[in-house]
Amino acid sequence: MTKTVVITGANRGIGLELVKRYLADENWHVIAACRAPDKAVELKQMIGSSSKRLSMVALDVVDSASVLRLQQELDGATIDVLINNAGIFNDRDSQFGALDYDKWMESFNVNVLGPMRVAEALEKPLMRAKAPKIVTISSQMGALNRNATGSFAYRSSKAAVNKAMQTLANQLEDTKAIVTLFHPGWVQTDMGGSNAEITPSESADGLFKTIAGLTKADSGKFLKWNGDVHPW
Known about the structure:
This protein is of the alpha/beta class. The chain has seven helices and seven strands; from the N terminus they run E-H-E-H-E-H-E-H-H-E-H-E-H-E. InterPro entries: NAD(P)-bd_dom_sf (IPR036291), SDR_enzymes (IPR052184), SDR_fam (IPR002347).
């Protein structure tokens, strides 16, 4: 039986690689969500060779109206996996004494409220699945046990989404839903940079395999792309 995965921020980086990895398994239908589908050239090219297993939808995770349209479009669907991948790293060089608080608010809106908006909007389609999985791509930069400086907005937003999703896991403890956070690795993307440790395809392959093996016991955990537990 074909399963359905919704991937946000699917037009580039890890999101795009996740689309490719799920399409490589004929058991999956992929709904690729991004802000501007018309400009998602690579995704559009993939549709023709996907045997109708790939569809694109417009989604801006900070726009409540856009999220509502997604909710309406998928109202009668069954979603097995939601991957909250859309994110922003807008304060890479920020330092105390010259902080941009507008960027900080933008970071929280995208990285924290965005995944929660989408998860809440797709609750009904997710709960139709036998073992629905709500996966959020976080970062080791949000782990409180890591000592670091700079990037206040990004680090704090990832710590916040970790806590929000852990709380959601507790909220859904008595349901069949599995809510899990992932550090995708230090990945060679626009966000991770060319000196990063692993390729997007390596990250996506690890995420795909680990997500497939998630059980209820993993709900509320913070994991690495390879399945190892990440310290909070």
